[in-house]
Design brief:
heterodimer; A: 65 residues; mainly beta; five-stranded mixed β-sheet; 9% helix; globular; B: 712 residues; alpha+beta; Aldehyde Ferredoxin Oxidoreductase,  A, domain 1; Aldehyde Ferredoxin Oxidoreductase Protein, subunit A, domain 2; six-stranded mixed β-sheet; binds iron/sulfur cluster
Chain lengths: 65, 712
Amino acid sequence: MITVGDKEIEWHEGMTIRDMLNMLEHTQFCAAVRLNGKLVSSPFFETKEIPDKSVIYLLPLIAGG
Amino acid sequence: MADFTLKEINTLEYVRPEIDKGYTDQSLHINLTSKEIKINLIDKKVKDKFIGGKGYDLWFMWNAVSGKTKWNDPANAICIASGPLGGTPGYPGGGKSIVTTISPLTGIPIDSNVGGYFGPYTKFSGFDVLALTGKSDKEIVVLIDGIDSKIKLYEVSGLTNDSYTLSAQLTDYFDKEKPVNISVVSTGSAAKNTELGCLNFTWFDAKRKRVRYKQAGRGGIGTVFAHKNIKAVVTRWGSVSMKSNNPADFDALKNVTKLHAGEINTLDPKQNRMALVGTTHLVPIMNDHDCLPVNNFKYGQHPEAHNIGEAVYEHIFDKGFDGCWRGCAVACAHGVKDFVPFTGPYKGQKVFVDGPEYETVAGCGSNLGIFDPFFILEMNFYCDTYGLDTISIGTGIAFVMECFEMGLITKEHTGGMDLSFGNRLNALELLHQMVRGEGFGMIVGKGIRKMKAIFAKDFGAEAAIMQDIGMESKGLEFSEYMTKESLAQQGGYGMALKGPQHDEAWLIFLDMVHNFMPTFENKAEALHWFPMFRTWFGLCGLCKLPWNDIVPEDNRQNPEPAKVVKHVGWYADFFSSVTGRKVSPDDLIPMSEAVYNFQRLFNLKMGYGTREHDTLPYRAVGPVTVDEYLSRAERYDKDLTENYKVDITGMEVAEKVAVLRKHREARYEQLKDAVYKRRGWTPNGIPTVETVKRLGIDFHDVMELLKSHGVC
Ligand code: SF4
């Protein structure tokens, strides 16, 4: 199980950030997430694997300074 | 402690008006030549049209200067205002000041939105706007004392030039018992010798028992301030509460404040964690998306960028509450204590550094090819205390470094200094030279536009290549985002009224990463709505960050998440509750539109404000050099073949660079057409008669100005 915001999601071996986003709605504007406190940006969504029991927050649309 | 003297030379006692629904309806005018102090009432028509803040600043400046006024003419005004909502404690970002003047870099109005307590304190002291004109023959300190209802002018001697120390000394001098009552505006010793001077606005950090600083950085406002011989403007005010603005509907104000602050308290720790890392989270995100300026905007990424991002600064920042306005829940104005510079007059001494923010990290770090967080702290510290804009300094030195590496300038011109990318010591030495008023630093301190002319004329450097790589537009240095792959952001910079600063429009991710605006019309719509809405914060005396840096959890379900519609609704409620003028979210854009167009007309009045001035250096649009093209060859090849249908078989790289340039430059011109049309401007970028009439800014002199440009 992983936690995304206030939701619990079933975890599977090799699950990437992209896999996780595909399981959620309205994620087309997500360019970065916080995975266990660390930033992961969209160029790494396909490759970054999520460990089991992770806590993830989707960052708001990046708005600049 | 202080070894200086203040001699009172003029005093005006006044009756302080009660604040009425966010307004005092008074302006304060100080003529530094005659030392005259005047208080005027603000006309209701001006209030309705210009709202406050930047709107008031521009209106009073418009009336102070002629089209021929230069930045260093006594007629030039520095105007400072908060706004009707400014000074609301607890509302996130609810206490900014907006400063304007005719910029030494651009010759047109520059505006800067800055934290610290000055604007709200000045309003509570009785003045919606302060206008400083003239030029004093001796160094002068202005005191606006709202507690004793007196305006005082002092001649000063023996006061240090270093902005940090100077502000601390004046805070102590004017209210030793209650330093939190004081806010000081000052610049530093380099402002006089350069055109890149910033202003430092203070507040007293009661927990840390020290004066803290925020900068009105852009466009050389500090240079104008120093040229007028103003040492400092000090405002003194006492207690502040949510009732200080005498809001029309206190309960509604309390309610909306609680909603917005509560949301930030809950969500910031889950989102950008700005209360811990400020805006340094942007460094790794920009780097990962190839948007972090590296080596004068040549590249967008560097493997060492993680050394200067949030992961490092989180541990360097001094822990504690860091709101630059009272009770701002975002609390992103961090600092570093006990930093020890390794160069300059503070070498070996422990100092507190206010910052750095993303712009300083990228400008004085990655853009110089330097990935050392402590070097950036030292640049930040000396820029602030010397009164220099970290953005123009960073972008300016980056340009110099590229010129040096290209052989356009050599050690012969730099006084023997190696100014290649990565040279920390010599980058700092340039700052120290600006203070001492000597050496190559004096040329760098003139800004990129003038440097280009000097390098060409005096050093024989090739003008065309400098035009391509000198990251300025309208004379102002770019702030720190890479725009090559975002046409919308090229427009956001190129068509920004004051020059390329991101506070008007920041559309890179919507455009480049999310492809949300595929057509010219989509982009033009965004380049209408976003600049207008961002302008609104400056009218009201607010900070923009709480609008869209922390967003509601259900925001992504909205079809237009970038607008953060729920917050726009809260801002309309905030405005209604304070001013009593009932507005809906749809009313906010027209408020800004009038002021925005007025500023464009102001540019026109000053001899600019037309299409030819909305140009960009090609580095902002595409790859200038062959190696730049090769660094992202796949991307550029794809752009040529897929978007422009060019057959690139057998093409040399130099030829590809040229063909791509032709297409990308044409595309930017097409964007201008679309944006001008959407904004109600002529193809030459001038507001039409119909537009100015619709917005109610068809004043006699505006119509005459339009007529003189053939717009009838
Ligand atoms: S969000 Fe940050 S910059 Fe804006 S007012 Fe609050 S502390 Fe200051």
